[in-house]
Amino acid sequence: MTATRVLVLNSGSSSVKYQLLDMADGSKLAMGLVERIGEAASRCVHTLLTPGGSTREQSGHIADHSAALKAVAAELDADGLGLDSPELAAIGHRVVHGGLRFTAPTVVDDTVLQEIERLVPVAPLHNPANIIGIRTARELRPDLPQVAVFDTAFHTTMPEYAARYAIDVATADAHRIRRYGFHGTSHAYVSRRTAALLGRTPEEVNVIVLHLGNGASASAVAGGVCVDTSMGLTPLEGLVMGTRSGDIDPAVIFHLTRVAGMSIDEIDALLNKNSGLVGLCGDNDMREIVRRTEEGDERAELAFDIYVQRLKKYIGAYTAVLGRVDAVAFTAGVGENSAPVRAAAAAGLEGLGLTVDAGLNAVRSDKARLISPEGSRVAVAVVPTDEEREIAQQVYALVND
Ligand code: AMP
Fold it and tell me: Is 216 in contact with 231 (CB distance < 8 Å)?
């Protein structure tokens, strides 16, 4: 029997998300989530996606990531899809930070794990959970290839002049300070999918990808290669996000230290957790913000306008970086679902060749689609992202190499 299944694990600080795919036909067999790991009432939701499948939900204390992965294994086992199945080809792990060392999916051995650990100082919120996920999966199936797929990998093609900050080179190099970019798996998948939607190869098109979820980032992709992206050393830089500020003058930090007497940890929490949309208007859900703007809520209107202003600036900047833009693609929770954000981001950019057709923009669909009028100079697309599928494809290609 050929092993054609790939289990994709996305271990966050207090959650594990997973999907099981069969790469023989690209179908998804199961998916689920363990959340609130370490709390008294952890929650485990498992869905069997094959015909006749259903969803099971349980709650109870799940002490740590190791127990969470064992719970995932038990759920899959109950559906006859257990980790000991000979059909399982590999386990793919989303790893947030691969630094400059990891430019492609990598089979994990002890050395690779040590390298990922060495990157913890630049990804303190994310890499530790990813490492625990990999360790536990290795314990459960030591004989199976465990493959790390890095969020930063797609951006390692950025030219030096896009990746470097204009700060003292020796200091930057000593502390590995540069722009790494994140959401790379999504930017890679969506830029390729957008090319296919236009009936072209990735090499033939230049695309601006706007990944607008709770975290948000933009990238400029020239002929399938990332040439610039909005997130930097950490996922804090760039667009306005659900709870993160995105770009600010770094002197705000000195000011808050000297004038407001805030500690570095307090400022870190302010910029990462209490800024962005939530800091501006108290809500980070775009549905709620749009609803409030319709009622004339001024704080929500201002938050929406600040969010859109930043988006427009990045569309303009990346139009300049690319020289010629074939498509702008909206993806992730806000990008895929919020017609008002898409309309507002494109409004007034006709001079750059961008137009959104109001009728097409209003259609709700989970399919990749164009929302610009036929014959537009720049195609505007809505492309649902699928990071799990992209990870599974990369993992499967590597283990069958
Ligand atoms: P993600 O991080 O990609 O899961 O995106 C999550 C965000 O997407 C939420 O915080 C909402 O702001 C946004 N979102 C989800 N569904 C909708 C919707 N139907 N309309 C507008 N925004 C949405």
Answer: no
Q: Which residue in 48, 43, 50, 51 sits closest to 16, CA to CA?
A: 43
What is the residue type of 219? S
What does the block give as tokens for 227?
Answer: 């040439």
**In the chain, what are the domains?**
5-150 (3.30.420.40), 200-387 (3.30.420.40)
**pTM (2 decimals)?**
0.95
- Counting ligand 1 atoms within 8 A of each CB, the residue from 186, 209, 231, 285 with the most, and so the one to mutate, is 285
Q: Is 247 a catalytic residue?
A: no
- Give residue 214 CA to ligand 1 midpoint distance, Å: 7
* Residue 157 beta carbon below 6 angstroms from any ligand 1 atom: no
Report the run of H or E that residue 314 belongs to, with start and end. helix 298-322
* Listed residue (73, 148, 314) closest to 216, CA to CA: 314
Q: Is the CB of 286 under 6 A from ligand 1?
A: yes
pLDDT at 223 over 70: yes
* Residue from 241, 304, 307, 338 to probe ligand 1 pocket by mutation (most atoms less than 8 Å from CB): 338
Q: Which residues pair with 7 in a beta bridge?
A: 20, 91
User: By 3-state DSSP, what share of the chain in percent is helix, strand and coil, each rounded to 5?
Assistant: 40, 20, 40
Tokens 């303190």 — which residue?
Answer: 124
Q: Which atom of ligand 1 is nearest to the CA of 212?
A: 3
Distance CA 152, CA 131 (A): 16
Q: How far is CA 20 from the centre of its chain?
A: 19
- For 178-207, the pLDDT digits (tens) are 999 999 999 999 999 999 999 999 999 999
Nearest to 386 by CA among 146, 94, 96: 94
